Amino acid sequence: MRAHCSTCPALDDELVERLVAAKKFGSGIDFGRQLLYAAFDMALSSESPGKTLATWTAMESTTPMGYAEGTEFPGTFEHIASGYAAGYYGYMWAKVIALDLISAFGSDIMNGEVGRRFREMILSRGSEEPARELVERFLGRPVSSEAFYEEIRGY
Fold it and tell me: In Å, how far are 46, 84, 100 from 59, measured between CA atoms?
């Protein structure tokens, strides 16, 4: 941090380790929950979706935490009634793409050259071209899930 902010306090290794551990805490539950939400959204958009609460109860029952009797999550899941139509998975796909973009910075997330290239090739382009084309031009290759897998392996 000091290389980028001379007035910032020094961060010792112990504090960095604690910050990393705090970031990782509960991530497995979060990833699993997002997968459940996406699968539920897709199930409701299938050819034979079944009854909403029954579908949710069956799906949540297969998770490590199970279904909590008496709860009715589908009534609070606004995405299923707001036009997503099996698109909830987009949240996790956005994380895959974001981590892939971050991987372009290598070990120096504050790399000014890569940051400028990101600004010029993606941020300043807005919606002039499809986002996928902008991202792949910046990366110099198709989008990959590898950075995402590396991220979750570290948890």
Answer: 14, 19, 30
Structure tokens at 108: 């120096």
Tokens of 41: 């959204």
Q: Which residue did the predictor score with more confidence, 63 or 23? A: 63
> How far, rounded to the nearest angstrom, does the alpha carbon of residue 105 sit from its chain's CA centroid?
18
Chain CA centroid to CA 121, Å: 22
Is residue 56 a contact partner of residue 33, using CB atoms and an 8 Å limit? no
Contact indicator for 56, 40 with CB cutoff of 8 Å: yes
**Extents of the domains making up the chain:** 27-81, 90-153
Helix (H) or strand (E) holding 134: helix 131-139
The most confident of the ranges 2-11, 28-37, 110-119 is 110-119
What the block records as the tokens of 133 is 């084309």
Closest by CA to 84, choosing from 118, 42, 24, is 42
In percent, the amount of the chain with pLDDT more than 70 equals 99
What is the per-residue pLDDT across 99-152, written as a single tens digit (0 to 9) for each?
999 999 999 999 999 999 999 999 999 899 999 999 999 999 999 999 999 888
> Position 72: which residue type?
E
Q: For helices 131-139 and 90-103, what crossing angle results, to 10°?
A: 30
